[in-house]
ATP synthase subunit s-like protein
Amino acid sequence: MATCSRTFTRKFSGTTSLGSWIHKWPRFKRWQELQKANEDHVVEKTRMKNFIRLPTGLYITPERPEDLAPKKATADMTRRETGALPMDLLTWHTQMRYVDHSLDNIRRYNRYTNFQHMQYDQRMIPERLLFLGADLAAAHFLVHRGAAVKFLGDDSWYKRDKRKQYKLPGRKVENLLIEAIDASGTSLMFEGLENLEGLLKLRLLRLANCEYVDDWFLGRVGAMFPELEMLDLSGCDRISAKGLMGLKSMKKLKYLRLEGLDVKDVGKAALLLEETIPRLQILGVDYENCLERVEAEIRLLEDERVVQDARGNAFVEDDNGRLFYVMGDVDERAVVDDGDNPIMTSTVRREIPDMSDEQFDKINALSGGKLKHLLVGSPSGYEWTSTTETILQSEAEWKSRAGIDVNPKMLPGRTYEIEKQNKLEEEKKRFFENFPSHEQLGDEESEQRKISHGS
């Protein structure tokens, strides 16, 4: 297996040892495409070899392969047919001076090639399904990649040991059905779900802290396992509220765990799922935090400086009429160097909004820190809370050594305490003011009884 993996890496990465340092990003090709291209090459080679057959049984191969192909006009010929250099090579050579040799790009390149390998490695192998059956083939696929499985009627969990070895039957066993899967922390991908087809008795599926579980993954899970009763998605950061709604077809789902899932509108999606699926209980959702977020968004939109575009993104307008993004569907992150340290100069840096410090801190707090974040960073997908303060601290120290004045709005440690206006508590208070309590109702009933007995 290790030999096959090394062969695949060399064959499918499209680079040599020199390319791994130059970082020529290869175009991603699936193994089916490469196999088809190889078959076409063999057919063309055989056709050239058998071009002319002599009465003695010998074959004459033309000296030039282009003699077999019909002649084309020069304008219709490709660069390969005219003998010119490939356009990919010219483009790569032109971009050599722009190639990023930083350690961050090396890590990014290695993650990219590893991602390609995992997509190929998690393909569905028909022979494995034929000889082992759906459940046992899925067990081999999962346990080999670090997951654990439990079979129906067996209390033991089957997983790899410290030497990455495991014991599972090597041929089909009747009535051996998977009941539970624990794939927490594994690299299970969308392409690997094809190996889990036909698991009719699966009741529990744990996908906690799986890096590649996203909305597309959940959509397929909802369609593949209608009998699933327990699902754990804790720590899956790529899932959005829209992706959670892909589980609405799982009518037998009883428990859904969403701990550590800090995404927008997760509370609303959880309530809609509980309303759609009977007997569903969702664990790990901080509804109070979700309500506070909604309140902050409402108060932010009520501010006179905040405007919205047609897509629902919110911007704050300063005294000079400039707009600064504060809320919407745009991802953000801080700009960092190879060592994950903040970069002082950013090509997307905006000027400080022209408004009072109090208004700046208030809008920044209501937007969850995005106003200040985008003044020191660029779009991407990281969280901001601690990163922004690190950047501001480093920049303030650098400017103080250089003798440059720092705008008070960009000093680290500036916080604004938002006045909590819990609408739920207000509604409760208003309800009890309009309606008497149980003690008051009891006093009124006793007085009515006394009046009735006296009469």
User: Anything to note?
Assistant: The chain has three domains: 118-290, 295-410, 423-454. The radius of gyration is 32 Å. The longest strand covers residues 178-182. Residues 118-290 form a domain with the Leucine-rich repeat, LRR (right-handed beta-alpha superhelix) fold (CATH 3.80.10.10).
